Each structure stands twice: as C-alpha cells, then as structure tokens.
Amino acid sequence: MIHVLAPGLRATIQDRGRRGHAREGVPPAGPADPMAFAAALELAGCAPDAAAIEVVGLPFAFRCDDRRIVAATGRDVGVRTRSRLPGWTSVLVRAGEEVVVEGSAMTRFAYVAISGGVAVPPVLGSRATYLGASLGPIPRALVIGDALPLGPSSAGADIAGRHVSPPSYGGPVRAVAGPHDDRFPTGTVAAFFSSSFAVSPDSDRMGVRLSGDVVGGPDADLLSCGIIAGAVQIPRGGAPIVLLADHQTTGGYPIIATVVHADLGIVAQRSPGEYLRFARVTPGRTLRSASR
Amino acid sequence: MSVRPYGDRAFLIELEQRIDPAIVDLARAIADAWEARGLGEATPAYASVVVEFDPDRLHWADAERAARALADDPPQGGSITGGRLIEVPTLYDGPDLADTAARSGLTIDALVTLHSGRDYRAFFLGFMPGLAYCGLLDPRIDAPRLVSPRPRVPAGSVAVASGQTIVYPADTPGGWRLIGRTELKVFDPSRDPATLIHAGDRLRFVPR
C-alpha cells in the first residue's frame, strides 16, 4: 500500500492505455508522455503493463508500507527521501519513508512508478484514468489520504541506483506529413514544417494547442475519421492542436501531420510559452529525415 | 481506395468520401478484417479506417502491404443484417424541437413523426464513449449544427444535425439540435459491454 501525502495539482492512475475500445468511442488515456512512463516502470522493476501514477503540478509525496523500488521520470524531475536524488533513477525506499517527487517550472507530466505496480482492478481492460468520462478504477484525481494497493514486488535492492538518460525535451518534434496533407492548399505543408509554434496555456492531456503562424486549412470540412495520438489537427482558425492520450477517437478537422510515437512526450512536456518545431520524417524500416 | 501513412505506426485507408450506409459497412468490414488478422487495432468511421500496428512485431513496409492488400481487395460488406434493433423510448420535448420544425417547414407533430418513423443505422461510435452516429434523417428535416454549441448538453438528450441523429451518452458540450430525451443509458462503464449501441445496430425512436 502507498499513502498519498501530497497529490500535486492532478495525479491519476495510468497504465499504458485502454486499447481495444476505440470503436466504442473510448479514448485510450494512458500516459501523456509514454516514453517517460515506460522508463519509470522499467526502472522500478515493473512489467510494461503495470500501472503507475501520472502527476501534473509537483510536488507529489507519499510513503510506502513496505520496502519498495521507486522511480520518478518526466521533464526536470527529482526525488527527495533522506537525500536528494535525480529523476530517471531506481531508488530504494524503506518502509514508512516519505518520498517527495519534485520538479521545476518546466515540468508538466511526472511519472511515479513503485515496484509491484499500483494494483487496482482494471475497468474496460485497463487501469488508465480518463477523467473526461470518469472512467477507470479510481476515476478521479488522487487526494491526500488515498491508499493505493501495490502488487507483489519482485524487484530486489540490487536494481537501486540504476539510471537512464532522459530524452532531450527541448528539441524538434519528428512528424510524418499527413494523412490529409494533400487537402491543404499548395505550400501549406512545407510552411507548416518550417514554422515555429508557441505552446498555449490551455494545453492538457487531450492535446497541446499551438499558436503562432496560422496554417491555412481546406475550405470544406472533412468527414470524421479515426484519431491517433500525435495527430496534428488544423481547426478553423488555423491554430494547430497536437492530440495526446485523452484524444477523442474520431474527429473532423484535417490532419496535416502526425508526430511519431517516440516523440509524443517531447510535445506533451513542452511548457506554455515555449516554442516547438516539427521536423519532417518519412516512415519506413527506420525513420529518415525527409529531404526538403 | 487510398492508403496514407498516419504517423509511424498506422495507416489511414480512405474510401469514397461521402456518408452512405454501404460505405460505412465496407469500412467496418475492413476494420474487422485487420483486427481478425491480429495486426492491431482498427478504427472505422464514415468512409475511412485507421489501421494501427505494432512496429516491434511488424515492419512498416509489411504493414503498408497488408493495408494496401485490404484496400485493393476489400472483404464483402454484407453486415447489414447483423445489427440488433434497439428501441429508444423518447420524450420529444427538446429545446430545439420547435425551431427545427419551423425551419424545416413542419409542424412539431410532423417532425416527431418523421424522426420516429424510420429505423436508423448506427454508423460508428466516436466523439465520446458510447456516442453512436446514426442515420440517415429524412431529408425534409433541416438541421444544421447550432452556430454556438451549448456548454452543457444533458446525458440522454436525443439530437439531430447534418442528416444524422444521436443520443448523448453523458453531459458534454455539444452543438447538435436537441429534440428530445431518453432514459436509456447508452454508456455505462459498470456494464459489460459498456456501450448499448454498436456500429451496425438499428435504432428506432419510440415517442412516449
């Protein structure tokens, strides 16, 4: 069991997402930054399908009833127990010890994984929380005093101290043109890939809203089609939205480009007011930078 | 049909871009075939299918070949008889009922008779959990979307817009025209399956 001492602004249980229900209109949810989430699980010795905690608005503090391996990841994340430790590191935590996960002004989504994983029963096949429809085993943000059951931990103290390097969160975001690239006026796609966009404050788990150069869209609406995380929609008005974990399953705005899966976290972790550029790549056996 | 890259782990298969029950059925049949082969999740809509794959298990080029093969030689749609008939007891008292009737040149009674007088196909689910896009409306019902969406539409609202009709599964902002309401719960995560209406089902609104 872990006991939540400080829940941050909004902490939710997440696993890698609720697959197989898009045809019922159910968004996948899961982590906004899948790479950081997977790294946290791995560092804590959890299985890839285990559940952990996503936190917006650090600090997040908790204590465990028994000895566990803990890992915190995300952008600019650190861990404080008796000592101060960097994020992206396996930390051995003693029974009853208080753990504080801290961030900086740049931190948006932090992940806290505990060996054994958060062992709440799945809803519709997943432990992910989708606040938009109050869906999940704990369909709300965590509050002080919440006690979360943990699975049996097979991770030994020997993995403590392991560290992986966080990705470069400030870099360009790789994206594949389309699928609706040919619906835009000539030159629009090239202009999109050479533009710089500012991240808007009203970005959330559903999507990152961008401002800056207006992208000219098609005159006519499209028929709604399926949405995946990373899709860059151009609504009327021309301000792009990069869709993330809580995206609607279908949408009618044209999609000028789609962020590659490995870079979803780079988008999600960009802070309001920061800038973002898209680097065009073509998919294939490996991703290649597209020649201009 | 066209097959377009959709990021680095999905393709978008596009059919003829119009709303037509036969095209919707074909899109769903393509999605079923993709999933039946264990290639990944597939999401059909009006006239397209998103087919996803796991790049750790399937190379991009092989996934593209599989998607093109499905597009070039699609399975037979023929699922029109597969759906269940779902009756939706409806109280026609929505705030947009009178206006929608007036702009269609109909009396309220005539609009209710037209709306409840035919069975609708559930084309696909999207926008929010459990929301089924159903059609087609009688073309005499003139129902463009509202210019300003409502900040809150109550769960169970029966609505029309752009030739289609829906039941809102939960409270949500929404821009469709509200003509009535039902007590049916179209989405309930504690129920299995959570969704009442599935793509391919038929809907009949029963005035009460």
Give me the CATH fold name of the largest domain in chain B: Cyclophilin
User: Biggest sheet of chain B, open or closed, and with what strands and sense?
Assistant: 7 strands, mixed
Which structural category fits the helices and strands of chain A?
A: mainly beta
Arithmetic mean pLDDT of chain B: 94
Q: In order across it, which strands form the biggest sheet of chain B?
A: 5-13-6-7-10-9-12
Question: Beta-sheet strand percentage of chain B?
Answer: 25-35%
Q: Output the structural class of chain B.
A: alpha+beta
Secondary structure tally: strands of chain B: 13
The CATH superfamily of the largest domain in chain B is Cyclophilin-like
- Termini distance of chain A? 54 Å
Number of domains of chain A: 2
Task: Identify the notable features of this structure and list them briefly.
heterodimer, A: 292 residues, mainly beta, Cyclophilin, seven-stranded mixed β-barrel, 3 helices, elongated, B: 208 residues, alpha+beta, seven-stranded mixed beta sheet, four-stranded antiparallel beta sheet
Model description:
The complex is a heterodimer of chains A (292) and B (208). Chain A has 292 residues and is mostly beta strands. Chain A has 3 helices and 21 strands. Chain A has 2 domains: 2-159, no CATH class; 173-289, Cyclophilin-like (Cyclophilin, Beta Barrel). Chain A has helices spanning 34-43, 188-194, 264-268; strands at 2-6, 10-14, 52-56, 60-64, 68-74, 78-80, 84-86, 91-93, 98-102, 109-114, 147-148, 173-177, 196-199, 207-212, 225-226, 231-233, 241-243, 250-251, 255-259, 275-282, 288-289. Chain A has a 7-stranded mixed barrel. In chain A, strands 7-6-9-4-1-11 form a 6-stranded antiparallel β-sheet, with no helix packed on it. In chain A, a hairpin with a 3-residue loop joins β6 and β7. The mean pLDDT of chain A is 93. Chain B has 208 residues and is α+β, with helices and mostly antiparallel strands. Chain B folds into 2 domains: 2-72, 2-Layer Sandwich (Gyrase A, domain 2); 85-207, Cyclophilin-like (Cyclophilin, Beta Barrel). Chain B has 4 helices and 13 strands. At the A-B interface, β12, β15, β18 and β19 of A face β2 and β4 of B.
